[in-house]
Design brief:
- One of its GO terms (molecular function) is DNA-binding transcription factor activity.
- The chain has 185 residues and is mainly α.
- 62% of the residues lie in helices and 5% in strands.
- The protein contains 7 helices and 2 strands.
- Strands 1-2 form a two-stranded antiparallel ribbon.
- Helix 2 crosses helix 5, helix 3 crosses helix 4 and helix 6 runs antiparallel to helix 7.
- The longest helix has 26 residues.
- The protein starts with 7 loop residues before the first helix and ends in a 7-residue tail after the last helix.
């Protein structure tokens, strides 16, 4: 006997529940990794370092805009990275009066350790998966993150509908987040 067809409402209920479980488990592990780098870098630090590493030095305002967060939040999150030597402040190459943030050699080393640890964790968690399953899951997760970014961009304008004007920007953001780093965050 075949399974009764799930209604759209039931499917969405299962989806929201699985997303909630994923969020809790991700927070429990802090998207850590394996080995000595496990849980050694919080999500904000990882995302900031990752962005600076991939896109190069930039000012606080540009970094905040690229990450979709407030400049004061970036300033607060970057301060301990500067204090610990993972990020350095340097003069803007085109305008020596302006200051930009850049990943320091020490920061790049730590970021590489954490990326490697997280890749190994993803390999362990998906050990029984085929490469095709990993690819499909990653593609769907990228698509889901893009949709969430688009939704949040619409809320930022006070618009409850799917945004149109900012969709391209968040799509670029989502595509960026997925390049070269399968776990993104």
């Amino acid at each position: 006997m075949s399974k009764p067809t799930e209604t759209s409402s039931e499917l969405l209920e299962r989806l929201q529940h699985q997303v909630a479980l994923f969020a809790r488990r991700a927070e429990q592990t802090r998207l850590g990794g394996v080995g000595k780098a496990r849980n050694s870098m919080d999500r904000a630090a990882y995302l900031l370092l990752n962005r600076l590493d991939r896109e190069g030095p930039m000012g606080v305002k540009a970094l905040a805009e690229a990450m979709g967060i407030d400049s004061s939040t970036v300033t607060r999150q970057v301060a301990p990275l500067v204090d610990t030597g993972l990020v350095k402040r340097t003069s803007h190459p085109d305008d020596g009066r302006a200051v930009v943030l850049a990943v320091s050699p020490r920061g790049r080393g730590r970021l590489d350790e954490v990326r490697d640890s997280r890749r190994r964790l993803m390999a362990q968690v998906t050990d029984g998966w085929t490469e095709g399953e990993r690819e499909v899951f990653t593609d769907l997760l990228v698509r889901f993150n893009i949709s969430l970014a688009d939704w949040h961009a619409g809320l930022g304008r006070g618009d409850d509908e799917a945004p149109g004007a900012t969709a391209g920007a968040s799509r670029a953001h989502g595509a960026y987040e997925s390049q070269g780093d399968p776990q993104g965050a």
